[in-house]
Structures are given as structure tokens and as C-alpha cells.
Amino acid sequence: MMQGKIGVTSENLFPIIKKFLYSDHDIFLREIVSNAVDATQKLKTLGSVGQYKGNTENLQVTVSIDKEAQTLTVSDNGIGLTSEEMDKYLNQIAFSGATEFLDKYKDDANAIIGHFGLGFYSSFMVSSKVEVVSLSHKEGSTPVKWSCSGSPEYAIEDAIREEVGTDVIMHINEESKEFLEEARIQTLLDKYCKFLPVQIAFGEKTEWKEGKEVATGETNVINDTNPAWTKKPADLKEEDYSKFYRQLYPMGDDPMFHIHLNVDYPFNLTGVLYFPRLKNNVEIQKNKIQLYCNQVFVTDHVEGIVPEFLTLLHGVIDSPDIPLNVSRSYLQSDSNVKKISSHITKKVADRLHEIFKNEREDFEAKWDDLKIFIEYGMLSEEKFYERAMKFFLLKNTDGKAFTWEEYENLIKENQTDKENKMVYLYATDKTEQYSFIEAAKAKGYDVLLMDDMLATPMLNQLEQKFPEKRFVRVDSNVADRLIEKENENKEELSADQKMVLSPIFEAVTPSEQGNFMIDFEDLGESAQPMVITQNEFMRRMKDMSAMQPGMNMYGDMPDSYNLVVNIAHPLVKQVFEQKDTTLGSDLDHFASDIQSKKTEIESLNKLKEGKKEEEVPQEEKDKMTALNGELSTLESSRREKLQSFGKDSDLAKQMVDLALLANNMLKGKALNDFVQRSVDLIK
């Protein structure tokens, strides 16, 4: 028997492994199984070059549990170890500068294991004792056993083993009994070893018979040794890609299409990425791409390897240029990783463009599922934006799709305003904004449908890229004013007339739903009597505030609306006539008295011209103050009279409620009152 101490410059190795790596303790199985796979592949390589004469046809790694002995064993029939090799590979750990490094990365298991090649020693995270029994492939070798109980002391002694290969026997400690449960080990093997290039066996296959699960006697091989991404695209059919997707995501919806990555210069990269159907306004899962290193699972958190927007894709990336034990600090600084990220972005954009060019009809049919992904990419990656403009689509309310260039050609003649800016009209809800869409179409305008969760930031970006164009929501103004043309001859009210008429309609607007500004326009007799619109800028800022916490100042502001009264409509004119009939003499008196006060104030202001404030007599100042007070009182009294008239006018209420109803803003008691009033008016 040989005894000794493991060659480390720091005796903190085992406490670090057992304590600081504990949060990632399940990676031990990946490490031990990966070592076993390496051993079998090395033996196969030796056999292929004639340096090993034994059988290399049935190479396999077997994982087994012995609950009675409290052990978990990983066995292989690979290259094996001599006692000298055990001493070299298991005992002489290069550990220079260990203390500083362990302190820096004590919470990052992958960094420590990857830095020092400690894959085998991760077994001590779950073991009170580890034994390695091995028989080397070399002629004349005898079986040997290495054992260690989690301290620098070890022992190497003779053992019994008839076949070439190695057993790693882990005596599971009290804190890690979960790793003696078949279900737990099956889960870990499915996670880490599903596509390893050598068969991984664990227990027996089972089947249901007479209401219970029974063993079949057939070895349970848990992995596919030759998954789709390891094959050439020319050797695969669509059904092969679909089958592989089912292996990855048994419960997922069918993807739309895929990209097969196969790069060997300037770095090695293979993989298959799938485009999932992204539903609008749902939480997006970003851990669906699995990263492998030579078919060994590394992680499903690939944010450092692929751009943020590509984490929406599903599938597999495999690259030997990314270490198995990859740390976040490594991903942030490694040049290979950055090249891989850039290349994947280009491949995805090229693939989308290829589908668009060759299968445009199919691409358009899938656009509603694709657009969130593409818009996310355009918003977050400048290079992707540049490529994506070739296949980015705008879809109108009739369901027709256009490229950016095609749509510009469609609208430039009719939708260019008097400042020579092209105006892109859009709706966010075809049902709620139906009347506005129809009014815009009646003027010959086309209306886009932008109803996804990224629509607002997307149109903001497009306006920044194309300052000569602007996006206007179809309900942000009346149809005549959505695209400002040269002035047309239409009836207009003076400021004084608007001041008199505004209180009538202010009195019947629902203040609890926001602030309503009253305006008067000649929209023509055939247009609606009243239209409610919302300012484009303020509404867009509120939309952005919902997505960006830093913009709360807009989100906290009350909604602001414009109530546009159509002065050309017969019903509006009828309200004006009723106002004259009911309040005519009172309004005349108010007008006369108000004008008299204004004339006096104007005369006093003329007396003040050319004088400094201290040169104006106090008597004139006092009179000015009194006149302004009297004018304010008169105007307030007139306003109260007009508001009282408005509240009593069923016709005014009915027209305002109709406008609210058209905007889906009439609910609860107000809706019930509207219905009852409608019945009364019909009688």
C-alpha cells in the first residue's frame, strides 16, 4: 500500500470544495461522468491507431446506486489508470496562487473547478469518502485502488477488477442523501448527460404492466450519442429537426423554423436554433438555449454568449472553444465568446432574410409570432437592426404586409403633410379604434396595426432613424387633422365664441376619467357630432413609462383628452340654438357687461402707458383691481349659467356619451344612464 499527502500548496482545498461549492453541488455528476466519457474516447482513439488491441465496440459509462452501502458509482470501460498515473493525476494538483484565487472566487464553483482542473475533486462536495478502482489498458497492468476521505491524506493499494476501465465510488455524506435517490440521479443525467457521445447507462428500462411499473431487463440508456447538431445539415430532413426539438422540449409548442449552425473557422461552433412562437404580452423565458462543450451540458443561461434578444430562441449551441466550466467573468472578457455572439447574430439575420426572400408568403403568415423577436433584436442590437430592415414588415389593419420601402411607396403621395413629412398612421386595437380607422380610410389613408408590446419603443426608434417621418396614432386627432394639409375653407369660431360654448360641454365630461380639453372644429355634416382624441406625445410617454420605471413622472399624470365638437353637425347646432333660446337675454346682458368692463380696463391700461409702476396713481390701481374682480365675477357667473344649461341638456349629454362610448370609456352607472336616456329620447 502507498500512502501520502495530495500535492497542494494550500490545505484549504477540501473545506473550499465542501463549503463554498455547495450551492452548485450537483455539477459533481457532470464532472465524474464527463471524465469517464473522456476515458472511453481515449481508448477508442488508441484502438483506431493500433495502440490497443482489445475490444472498443461496446464502450459505455454506467451509473449505479447502492442504497445499502450508501454509494453512488460511475463506471467506465475506458483507458484505465496505473498506480503511477493515479499518483500523477489524482495526487499532484497544480495549485499555485491558490489562496488568493480561492478567496476571490469562493462563490463561483465553475470558476474554481475550471481554473484548477478539479472536476474529479468535485465528488467530495457530496462524499465523505471517494474510492477509485481501475485497471489500465496497458499490458501487464494490475488493478489498483485509490481512496481518500476528504483530507489531503490518501492511500493507493492493490484491488480486484477484471475488465479494463475505472470505477469512481462515492460514499455519499449525510447532507447529500438525495443523490442516493434514483429520481434525483435520473434528473441530473437528463440535464447534464443527455447528448454525451458515449452511451450512459442507468438502471433498467421499465414499462407499465397490470397497473404497475416493472423492469424489462433491458439496460436504460439515457442519452442520444449522435444528436442532430453533430450531423451535417445535408443529412437531416425536416422531421429530424422536429424530432430533435421534441427531445429538447417534450412539452413545447412546435417551432416555426430553425437555423443549423456549423462553423469551423475562426472558431468551432455547431448547433441548432429554433424560432418559437412568441405570444404577445406574455412573460418570455430566456433559458431555453442549452450550451454544450463537446456534447457535455454546460448551462442554459447563455446571456453572455449570445446577444440578449437571441436568448428568446430555443435550441443548442456547442463549442469546444468555450470551456466546460465557464464562469461569468470569463464570458464577459473572452474574445472568442464575442466573436461567437457576433456570428450567431449574423447567421440568424441571414436565415430570416433567406426565408423572407424564398418563402415570403410563409414568412408573412408567421409574422405575428416573429415580430416580437425581430423588434426586440432591432431595439437592442444595432447590427441586427441594419440587417433586419430588409425583412422587417409593417402590417396594416386589412392584414396586408409591406417592407419599409414598399410601404413608403404606398403612402408617400397621400400621407405627406404640409411640412413635407411622411405620416404613418397606426392603430393599436382594431376593435376599440374602429371608428377612427374608418374615418382615416374614408380620407384615403392607410392605417398600420401596431398592437404588440414593443410597438411604442419600436416606432420611437424608427422616428429617430428617419426624422423626416413620423408615426401618429389614428385616435390622436380627428381625421382631418391627423395629417395637416394646406388650410381649407372651413367655418371657425373666435376665441370669445369658444369661451362661451366650452362650459356647456365641460359640464358633462367625466372628470374622474381624466382632463378634457374642449375644442371646436368644422368636421362636416356627415362626421360624428363629437370625437374624443388623446394627445400622441403624452399617451406615448405614458406607454413608455409602463415599460421603463425611470419615467414614472408621465405614468403618474392623469390622462388628458381632447373633446372635439363638430360645429357643422346638425345636433351640435341644435344645442347652440337651445342655448340661445334658454339663455339668450341673460347671455346678452353678460356680454354687454363684460364688454363694458373690458373697455374700462383697456382705457385704464392706456393711461398707464409710458409710466413706471410708482407713477400710477393709487386711485387708478384700486380701480383696476376692482374692475378685474368684477370682470372675473361676471365671467364666472356666465360660466355657471352655461354649465347649468349643459347639465340640463340631454342632447349635450347624449353626444358626449356617444363619443365616450366610441372610445370604450362609458362604463358602469354612466353606461346605464346613457341607455336609459336613449330610450327616453326615442319615445
From TrEMBL:
This is Molecular chaperone HtpG. It comes from Halosquirtibacter laminarini. The gene is htpG.
